[in-house]
Design goal:
single chain; 8 helices; mainly alpha; globular
């Protein structure tokens, strides 16, 4: 399993580097990337779907709304402290914001589930086999999640990615249900990129 872990971790870096750095259309490359990573995660991962209840669904939705609020507050603070970096984040969000009908389909049915299957269901579960301390597992998994977005070259975006890794990693560690992290991630992106974009 360790060999598969490193090979897939290298693969996600290659795929995201191509998505962010090369002239291939972003949405096409990003969708293909997480379709491939979803298949690999389902093949080699070990997902849990325990504790699914109305209460946990509400917790999942609230965690997505919490992330949106955190990003909104972060934008206000960054506008004061880091205006140049914030302008770069705005440019980045313009690139990742859905424009065509198929972008919405890809975002909500392929990319978000694929990210959670890969980062929480495969990567975090593998990190758990190496470390007993739950905080260490969440921290390392979040760093790995952040590292794959380094090709944006934006510290604020990397910080946002790390925060997402902590929230979704904690939710998965706590509730042991990959569906709940997918719902939380979906709620964040629904508000952030579709309903009430902050950029």
């Amino acid at each position: 399993m360790q060999k598969k872990f490193f090979l897939l971790f290298i693969l996600v870096h290659i795929l995201l580097a191509i998505s962010f750095l090369y002239e291939i259309p972003f949405w096409l490359m990003f969708t293909i990337s997480f379709l491939l990573l979803s298949v690999a995660s389902i093949r080699f991962g070990n997902f849990e779907a325990k504790n699914f209840s109305i209460l946990n669904m509400v917790i999942s939705i609230l965690s997505g709304l919490f992330m949106y609020g955190l990003f909104y507050i972060g934008k206000i603070g960054s506008a004061i402290l880091f205006p140049n970096e914030l302008a770069e984040v705005a440019t980045l969000y313009t690139m990742v914001q859905p424009q065509l009908n198929w972008h919405y389909f890809a975002l909500f049915l392929i990319i978000i589930p694929g990210e959670e299957l890969f980062w929480r269901g495969f990567i975090q579960r593998n990190v758990e086999t190496k470390f007993e301390n739950k905080l260490v597992v969440i921290f390392i998994s979040s760093l790995l999640y952040m590292s794959a977005n380094i090709y944006t070259f934006n510290p604020l975006f990397l910080l946002a990615t790390f925060a997402g890794g902590v929230v979704w990693g904690t939710l998965y560690m706590w509730k042991r249900n990959i569906v709940l992290t997918i719902i939380s991630h979906t709620v964040l992106n629904l508000f952030l990129l579709v309903l009430f974009p902050i950029f």
